[in-house]
Amino acid sequence: MILDFEVDISFLENNLIEFANTIRTLLFEENESIFEFIDIESDEIFLEPSLFSYFLNKNLGGESPSLLQLLWGYMHPNKRPSNVEVIADSGGIVVLPNYGYIVWEPRKRGRLFWDKEQGVPYLKESNLVVDVKILAPKFLEGSNIRLAINQPEFLFLDNGTDISEQVLNTTERFTSTINVAWRKMKTTVGDFTSFLERTNRELILFNSATQYSRASYSYYGTAFINVCRKMPTEVFFIDDIAHQCGHVLFYALSLPSDIFLKHAVGTPLREFNRIDWETRDIYGCFHGLFTYTTIVFCLDKFIEQEQKSANLKQEAIGRLCFYMDKFRRDLAHMHNGRILTEKGFEYFDMFQSGYDRILKKYKHYIRGSDFSNQSYLFDFSAYNLLNETKLFS
To answer: What is the top-level taxon of the source organism (predicted)?
Structure first.
């Protein structure tokens, strides 16, 4: 259970199979011969996030890696072609999913060779061997979720995202803090983290003043977390892991959408709530009900267990209250028989039940909180200016 939301494991697993089959089919249609190099039966290969982006983000700017580059790490060493063309991203990283990364120069092109005798790759540019650093992938502590260091073009898809530093450097700075957050989540919400590990393949930490954290079906399996909002604490990471990785999980619990919604995913929510400035669609708001559930669930468990830091506990209370205010409003928007099917209302009732339980437990803090100086994202410093939160003993 995630608060009062019961995960249908069979539905989840069947959807992951469908997702893998979608990519398997697209790959076959584009390059049938590539199946000579990979295990066609392995769903793990076809749930690789960069393959989703390759096929579902055809409008990306810049130059993206080839299929041979993206699948090179999944090939059996004895089946790898003698060499493949590779390209470094805007941060100078040649990404080789399921193998590692080559640290090179931005936008450089070269050819990757495989020394079968030594069992190592090497890079050539203009027929000359290039001196580069090869990095093995790192993972969230004790998990199978990669802490990826590449800068995919997907990051630059919206709003002209400006990256303040290389993802590699951002990841190095915050690995320790995010691992603390993950350890606490594994301890307090272990069943939830197991669902995240089943559906999330990687996290990308980036630093941008022009973009929000995000997750998308078109880059399925990757959660993008923006760390630029002041100095992120372990509570921030618990919040955003629950949020963005929760979105990835919910794609596998909410598709095909017509099981839950009476209209197409892009249908504007304002057609139903009559709010002129509303920019979301009904599927996005439906997703939000799930991620509010996952966030307040994780924050509640953190608050219950945290004994060392009053400041972190207070931040968690402030964040929980902030999301409960949003949760309340979106429950009102989505409680609509013109939007939800019968199955959609089954999900809605579980969201509502979870909300009611948290409201009962924290209503003193929720009703007493002033969010008038908050923007779209929670700001703990701003919260403290207006709220004197009494901590739990």
So the answer is: Bacteria
